[in-house]
Q: What sequence folds into this?
């Protein structure tokens, strides 16, 4: 009897151990699945899928996925698909969007200095602009801009840099500054203030409305972006005069923002992967873009577009007027002044050595 009783107890213990073993296996399996489950961020570009800035954003996201072995996936959505177009930064700050892949140029009304962070007029080309951001305190100022107004966003390295744009598209030839008088022109930023000082009437329209506005005569001219980007908008079909050089937008970073709580929750190695992918995408963008822009200009010529380059004397006057606008806005907005002064001090040192190495 005692032996049978001991056998029963032993059997019961075996069953309990096996059951516990199965529970542990299931728990470990579920934990492994949880660990293997990718982190997914919803991002929105300010552009359509056929345009270059969207493609650069997608390349950045693809590299993050590849470099993280699928642990972090950034789903890049087209402009307006998740939140209204050009509200991406605000949506990240309010927590309704994980990541914004846009440009700070579109929030000038709320942050006057955002234009300086998204664009260089006349002075800093891409290499210098990147150097200022990375080593001259530019990214710190960018974050400070948002922090000053308590916007809950984390500024990351740019996912893309555009190279020098054309000065604009026109229905008639532009050869002197007098030719701007009375013109209805679409642009954004400080270039608009310069043009108003030259007698032009400046309006702001989304890129998707430019073709129709030009076709109907609502606009006499417009700027938008670099030649390869403009090619995608078909502006060459209506405007047969394309002006150079694009001193109003020499170079500039596209803005990468993420919700701070998502960033802080990200493992350190994934944080470094995101930063590395953004920097790689930027390098790719500034090299690839020049090649595509050169090809686009030759394409425009085949379509009957007249490529016009302004004289050095005319460009010098434009430069002077840009500085006047900078000084005017710096006197009005203290943080704008802080950013301008940082860029000017950096450029002074950079330009001095650059001239030494010029031939």
A:
């Amino acid at each position: 009897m005692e032996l049978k009783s001991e056998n029963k107890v032993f059997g019961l213990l075996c069953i309990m151990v096996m059951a516990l073993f199965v529970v542990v296996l299931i728990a470990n399996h579920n934990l492994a699945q949880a660990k293997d489950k990718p982190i997914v961020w919803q991002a929105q570009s300010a552009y359509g899928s056929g345009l270059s800035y969207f493609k650069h954003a997608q390349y950045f996201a693809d590299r993050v996925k590849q470099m993280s072995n699928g642990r972090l996936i950034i789903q890049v959505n087209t402009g307006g698909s998740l939140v209204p177009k050009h509200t991406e930064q605000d949506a990240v700050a309010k927590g309704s969007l994980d990541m914004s892949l846009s440009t700070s140029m579109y929030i000038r009304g709320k942050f006057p200095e955002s234009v300086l962070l998204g664009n260089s007029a006349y002075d800093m080309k891409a290499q210098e602009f990147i150097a200022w951001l990375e080593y001259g305190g530019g990214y710190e100022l960018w974050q400070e801009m948002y922090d000053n107004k308590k916007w809950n966003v984390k500024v990351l390295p740019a996912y893309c840099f555009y190279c020098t744009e054309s000065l604009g598209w026109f229905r008639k030839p532009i050869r002197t500054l007098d030719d701007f008088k009375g013109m209805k022109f679409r642009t954004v930023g400080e270039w608009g203030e310069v043009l108003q000082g030259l007698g032009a009437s400046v309006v702001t329209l989304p890129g998707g409305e430019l073709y129709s506005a030009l076709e109907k005569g609502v606009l006499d001219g417009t700027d938008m972006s670099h030649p390869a980007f403009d090619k995608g908008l078909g502006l060459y079909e209506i405007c047969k005069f394309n002006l150079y050089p694009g001193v109003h937008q020499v170079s500039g970073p596209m803005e990468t923002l993420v919700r701070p709580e998502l960033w802080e929750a990200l493992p350190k190695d994934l944080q470094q992967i995101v930063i590395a992918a953004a920097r790689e995408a930027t390098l790719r963008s500034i090299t690839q873009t020049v090649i595509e822009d050169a090809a686009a200009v030759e394409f425009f010529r085949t379509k009957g577009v007249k490529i016009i380059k302004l004289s050095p004397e005319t460009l010098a006057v434009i430069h002077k007027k840009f500085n006047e606008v900078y000084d005017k806005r710096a006197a009005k907005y203290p943080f704008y002044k802080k950013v301008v002064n940082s860029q000017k001090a950096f450029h002074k040192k950079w330009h001095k050595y650059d001239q030494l190495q010029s031939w």
Q: What stands out?
A: Residues 2-36 form the longest helix (35 residues). The CA atoms of residues 163 and 287 lie 9 Å apart. The domain at 38-175+204-312 is CATH 3.40.190.170 (D-Maltodextrin-Binding Protein; domain 2). The radius of gyration is 27 Å.
